[in-house]
Automatic annotation (TrEMBL):
Residues 10-68 form the HMA domain. The lineage of its organism: Bacteria, Bacillati, Bacillota, Clostridia, Eubacteriales. This is Heavy-metal-associated domain-containing protein. GO terms for molecular function: metal ion binding. InterPro entries: HMA_dom, HMA_dom_sf.
């Protein structure tokens, strides 16, 4: 398993409903290990297995949920 983390800054996280929606939508993707959303900084962190899902698919899922991605940063992990 090859693990990576991607960090997104999105246009707006508005309340607990948005946080729950993001977590539910991203957790549904195969290979996603964990999702963390920081409402105050509009940041979303996703840990995932690169053999299950790719970064482009994660970003596309966020956009399909109505969030505009302003910035993203990827970190690969060696295990």
């Amino acid at each position: 398993m090859s693990k990576a983390s991607i960090y997104f800054t999105v246009n707006k996280v508005d309340g607990k409903h948005d946080v729950k929606q993001m977590k539910r939508g991203l957790d549904a993707l195969p290979g996603v290990i964990s999702v963390s959303v920081n409402e105050s900084t509009n940041r979303v962190a996703v840990d995932f297995d690169t053999t299950g899902v790719q970064t482009a698919r994660i970003g596309k899922q966020l956009e399909q949920m109505g969030y505009k991605i302003l910035d993203q940063r990827l970190e690969n992990h060696v295990m």
